[in-house]
């Protein structure tokens, strides 16, 4: 059968056509006669141009021209009114034709790895667009996507964007993923809250020194990635605690209404309004009861007065701070808070061991033991199944305590500045929600490639150790690149 006969037979068929990896240098004219084509895949060829006949394929729903040598697209692509998915990534495009705004059905547009410096305003007319991929171009600003009311994902990483304005954000209410990593953004506007459905915000490797406090009010936001920014207005330890705690911090910094002044009737429910713990550096019982926090830090003490514990117990205190004192063990009266204590800050003391009684505080979510002389943790801590964050920095651990691997809700481990020599990749992989691991300034001589399979980890810090590989240049690329590198080293 002749070529023309084949074309004639195919003319009325609803067919997909794949001619990828065939070293094609141009689109065969015969293809433009296949008016009923629904899917056309020409990726991984050597196409330098696409002829105007592409516009005749007006029933196309899927067009893949990726990994070719295209420097421009013909205006006739705008005639592909039924096109749903258009992939033109990995080419040499410096512009997109304005006619692309006529692709009324388009849901996914991928122009990753090109040479775009700007985008046509007509792009904002794509009413049904859901996914927009523009990574690795030369864009200096966000596109103005005025009418893209269904847009869910925008990927703009690895461009030259310096500024995001309220005008750009006010039309993006439906966006759930905003990836603007590896740009030069120095400030986010308060109007980021226009993205009321935002779930993931990737700001890795920009020039941000702070964040708008209003960001913390986006209830849907589950992930904020900030690696590689020169943050000055937010402490590093707050960032390292993860998105939930970062949002809490941002909300706490927003201007709040002035509190009502307490009356002379004392605390409601008959609470004590006096001073406890001695008249010199005593604490206000009112403050303990209102905040449910006992702060007895920085007093050079090795015990806490009984009347303080009594008020704390009656108040149902959830947070205790005994850091920067002279304690050598858990205070015996801490057990009075067994049923309520959630956060315990016990850093900068003189612990060499910690009592197994710590395992009795089943509601603990945060435990800070930094700057002590600890080298192990009791096995009894395996009962702490609500533990979310543990701080072991500046102690004498030679390995991460194995009991940590029993805490399946653990999200954050700070164990920097110890004497840790090995990493248990299997143990870490068994922690399903682990997001942050800081092992900086230890004695680690080898990083196991299997650590790369711990893809749940979003921030892995390994600087200041004895190993030579991964090299500092790889560490500097951030956690995602580091894990990818480690996976590439796994011997199958």
Structure description:
The longest helix has 10 residues, at 243-252. Helix 6 (306-315) links the parallel strand 13 and strand 14. The two termini are 48 Å apart. Helix 5 (285-291) runs parallel beside helix 6. The chain is low in regular secondary structure and 492 residues long. It folds into two domains: 3-252, Leucine-rich repeat, LRR (right-handed beta-alpha superhelix) (Alpha-Beta Horseshoe); 274-488, Ribonuclease Inhibitor (Leucine-rich repeat, LRR (right-handed beta-alpha superhelix), Alpha-Beta Horseshoe), CATH 3.80.10. The chain has nine helices and 20 strands.
What is the topology?
Blueprint: H1 3-11, E1 16-18, E2 39-41, E3 62-64, E4 85-87, E5 108-110, E6 131-133, E7 153-155, H2 166-169, E8 177-179, E9 200-202, E10 223-225, H3 236-240, H4 243-252, E11 275-276, E12 283-284, H5 285-291, E13 293-295, H6 306-315, E14 319-321, E15 343-345, E16 366-368, E17 389-391, E18 412-414, H7 425-429, E19 436-438, E20 459-461, H8 472-475, H9 479-488
Parallel strand pairs: 1-2, 2-3, 3-4, 4-5, 5-6, 6-7, 7-8, 8-9, 9-10, 13-14, 14-15, 15-16, 16-17, 17-18, 18-19, 19-20
Antiparallel strand pairs: 11-12
Helix pairs in contact: 5-6
């Amino acid at each position: 059968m002749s070529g023309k006969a084949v074309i004639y037979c195919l003319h009325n068929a609803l067919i997909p056509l794949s001619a990828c990896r065939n070293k094609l240098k141009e689109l065969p004219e015969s293809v433009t006669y296949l008016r009923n084509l629904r899917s056309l895949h020409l990726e991984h060829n050597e196409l330098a141009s696409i002829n105007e006949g592409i516009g005749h394929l007006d029933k196309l729903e899927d067009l893949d021209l990726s990994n070719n040598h295209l420097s421009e697209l013909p205006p006739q692509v705008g005639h592909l009114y039924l096109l749903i998915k258009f992939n033109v990534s990995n080419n040499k495009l410096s512009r997109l034709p304005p006619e692309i705004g006529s692709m009324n059905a388009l849901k996914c547009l991928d122009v990753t790895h090109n040479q775009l410096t700007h985008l046509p305003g007509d792009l904002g007319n794509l009413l049904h667009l859901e996914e927009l991929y523009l990574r690795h171009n030369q864009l200096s600003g966000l596109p103005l996507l005025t009418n893209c009311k269904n847009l869910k994902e925008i990927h703009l990483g690895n461009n030259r964007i310096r500024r995001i304005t309220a005008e750009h954000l006010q039309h993006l209410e439906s966006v759930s993923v905003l990836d603007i990593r590896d740009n030069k953004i120095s400030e986010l506007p308060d109007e980021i809250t226009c993205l009321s459905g935002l779930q993931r915000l990737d700001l890795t490797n920009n020039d941000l020194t702070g964040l708008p406090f209003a960001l913390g009010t986006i209830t849907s936001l589950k992930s904020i990635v900030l690696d590689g920014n020169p943050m000055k207005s937010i402490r590093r330890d707050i960032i390292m605690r993860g998105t939930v705690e970062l949002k809490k911090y941002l909300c706490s910094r927003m201007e709040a209404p002035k509190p009502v002044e307490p009356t002379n009737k004392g605390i409601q429910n008959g609470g004590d309004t006096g001073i406890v713990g001695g008249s010199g550096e005593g604490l206000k019982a009112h403050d303990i009861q209102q905040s449910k926090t006992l702060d007895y830090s920085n007093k050079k003490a090795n015990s806490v007065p009984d009347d303080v514990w009594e008020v704390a117990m009656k108040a149902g205190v959830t947070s205790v701070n005994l850091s920067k004192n002279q304690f050598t063990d858990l205070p015996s009266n801490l057990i009075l808070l067994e049923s309520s204590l959630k956060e315990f800050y016990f850093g900068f003391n003189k612990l060499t061991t910690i009592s197994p009684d710590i395992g009795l505080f089943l509601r603990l979510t945060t435990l800070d033991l930094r700057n002590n002389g600890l080298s192990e943790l009791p096995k009894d801590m395996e009962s702490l199944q609500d533990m979310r964050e543990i701080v072991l920095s500046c102690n004498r651990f030679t390995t991460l305590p194995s009991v940590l691997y029993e805490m399946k809700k653990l999200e954050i481990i700070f164990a920097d500045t110890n004497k840790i020599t090995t990493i248990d990749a299997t143990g870490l992989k068994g922690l399903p929600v682990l997001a942050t691991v800081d092992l900086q300034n230890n004695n680690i001589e080898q990083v196991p490639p299997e650590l790369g399979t711990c893809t749940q980890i979003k921030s892995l810090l390994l600087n200041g150790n004895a190993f030579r590989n991964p090299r500092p240049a790889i560490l500097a690329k951030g956690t995602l690149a580091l894990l990818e590198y480690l996976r590439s080293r796994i011997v199958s």
